[in-house]
Amino acid sequence: MADFLTRWLRTVVDSSTLAPSTKTVKRTMAYYIEAYFAGTALVDVTPLAIQEFLKSLTDREYASRTVRAHLDTLHQALDTAVQWHLLPRNPADHAASPRVIYRDQHPLTAPASSEVQTPGASQASHTLQAFLDAATLDPQYALWLTLLGTGLRLGEALGLFWADIDWDQHSLVLQRTLSPLGMLRPSKAHAQRRVTIPDTVIVMLRHHRIAQRTWQEQTPAGPGDPDYVFTTRTGRPLSAASVRRTMRRLGALAHIPAPLTPHDLRHLYATMMRERDGHLTIVQRPSIPTSATACKTQRERP
């Protein structure tokens, strides 16, 4: 299967008239398909195996549109296999893809000013403030601020190493992404790019780093991989599925009716930057500690 997908990408996708961005998407999806069917011969890809592949994407909480797009890519590849007489028929012909659900709008809204106070408004007048207030004591509070303050994709944020952050320049070098399958891959543009980090996010990342060290010292399982910025308490990199579950839970606590996704923070970042001429200020309320600052306080006590 892996050899066939490589040949299909090289002879069909790369030589097509598709836009470069579309070719990149096809390659990314083919990568996930190849990873799932690793060690499986092309002739052994059955309709049942394809259905199980789609279910694995759904279990990882991929959006229905994304699952459908993976199926379309796999179907196109297997159509080529039939044309090349490698298969008698396409096993993806009768695969049941999920119904695509479109949201009318993004559920997060921002304040009218360019300042986002985080955390602590007594009565949130916009859903972003309500979400940040609900996330105040979440162990991954720094992740939410990073997504909001930089506009990174979730996989890009989860693939960050501490060495990627330039504390003096208040920036980070984006060079990799963590796939939903837990594998590191080059960033979407296949090139390093520097991203500015707002001052408040830098402060929260410093606190988060102290909290992370505290977790690792107190966890019997050991430190795990210390390079990742965002990890579990055992030091393992966060999974995209767990982040999405946490975000939906926090959205429910904030009484936001529509389920939240990490992409909503990226979309809101782009909206605020566009509407405010590239100026976005995130104001920290020091009187209300987050879980990270609480860990810092406990660590510094004699």
Give short descriptive properties of this protein.
single chain; 302 residues; mainly alpha; 11 helices; elongated; disordered C terminus
Order of helices and strands: HHHHEHHHEEEEEHHHEH
**Neighbour order of strands in the largest sheet:** 2-3-6
Termini separation comes to: 60 Å
Q: pLDDT below 50 for ≥5 consecutive residues: which ranges?
A: 118-125, 282-302
In short:
The protein is mainly α. It has helices spanning 2-13, 20-36, 47-59, 64-83, 127-134, 141-150, 154-158, 199-218, 240-253, 262-275, 291-300, and strands spanning 115-118, 165-166, 171-174, 176-178, 184-186, 193-196, 281-284.
Describe this structure in words.
This protein has 302 residues and is mainly α. 47% of the residues lie in helices and 8% in strands. Helix 1 (2-13) packs antiparallel against helix 2. The N and C termini lie far apart (60 Å).
Topology:
Elements: H1 2-13, H2 20-36, H3 47-59, H4 64-83, E1 115-118, H5 127-134, H6 141-150, H7 154-158, E2 165-166, E3 171-174, E4 176-178, E5 184-186, E6 193-196, H8 199-218, H9 240-253, H10 262-275, E7 281-284, H11 291-300
Parallel strand pairs: 1-7
Antiparallel strand pairs: 2-3, 3-6, 4-5
Helix pairs in contact: 1-2, 2-4, 3-4, 6-8, 6-10, 8-11
